[in-house]
């Protein structure tokens, strides 16, 4: 069986550009991705998990206060990753628009995660089934 840790097939786009209006007033000055959980920003937990799963390239799709995320994460080197950024712009484009804007940095094949989800699972089956079936898109729900 091929595992994600032996080969990182595709980059991952993380959608982290929303306004997080339900978490106000906390998110008026800090993006949701930078809210601390267990002593570090939530996005760092996600990135460490992805690296553990063998992912080495991430594109953070950021919008509201995205500069703060970029200042915190940087190029990803300290986490063992290559991190690029795709800024949503004004007005915010939403999920589809953010991904469309990020396509030049992602390439033809990539995975998408929401910036407020943490799933500590083996992503290998989903990674490889998405390429084996020849489909143009695969979704997973847990």
Write a concise keyword list for the protein shown above.
142 residues; alpha/beta; Spore Coat Polysaccharide Biosynthesis Protein SpsA, Chain A; four-stranded parallel beta sheet; two-stranded antiparallel ribbon; 4 helices; disordered N terminus
Share in helix? 25-40%
How far the N terminus sits from the C terminus, by CA atoms, comes to: 22 Å
Mean pLDDT: 79
Which of globular, elongated, flat, extended, rod-shaped describes the shape?
globular
Report the radius of gyration as a whole number of Å.
15 Å
Number of strands: 6
CATH class: Alpha Beta
How large a portion of the residues is in β-strands, by DSSP E?
Answer: 15-25%
CATH topology, by name, is Spore Coat Polysaccharide Biosynthesis Protein SpsA, Chain A
**Looking at this structure, what is the CATH superfamily?**
Spore Coat Polysaccharide Biosynthesis Protein SpsA, Chain A
Q: Which ranges are low-confidence, i.e. pLDDT below 50, for 5 or more consecutive residues?
A: 1-6
Biggest sheet statistics: 4 strands, parallel
Can you tell me the number of structural domains?
A: 1
Strand order, main sheet: write it out.
Answer: 5-4-1-6
| Count of runs of 4 or more consecutive helical residues | 4
Describe the structure in your own words.
With 142 residues, the chain is of the alpha/beta class. It has a single domain (4-129), classed as Spore Coat Polysaccharide Biosynthesis Protein SpsA, Chain A (Alpha-Beta Complex). Helices cover 29% and strands 18% of the residues. The chain is built from four helices and six strands; from the N terminus they run E-E-E-H-E-H-E-H-E-H.
């Amino acid at each position: 069986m091929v595992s994600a840790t032996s080969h990182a097939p595709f980059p991952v786009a993380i959608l982290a550009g929303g306004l997080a209006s339900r978490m106000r007033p906390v998110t008026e000055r800090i993006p949701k991705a930078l809210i601390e959980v267990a002593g570090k920003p939530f996005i760092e937990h996600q990135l460490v998990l992805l690296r553990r799963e063998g992912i080495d390239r991430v594109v953070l799709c950021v919008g509201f206060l995205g500069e703060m995320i970029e200042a915190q994460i940087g190029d990803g080197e300290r986490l063992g990753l290559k991190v690029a950024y795709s800024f949503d712009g004004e007005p915010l484009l939403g999920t589809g628009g953010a991904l469309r804007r990020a396509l030049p940095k992602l390439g033809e094949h990539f995975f998408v995660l929401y910036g407020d989800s943490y799933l500590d699972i083996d992503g290998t089956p989903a990674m490889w089934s998405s390429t084996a079936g020849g489909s143009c898109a695969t979704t997973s729900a847990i």
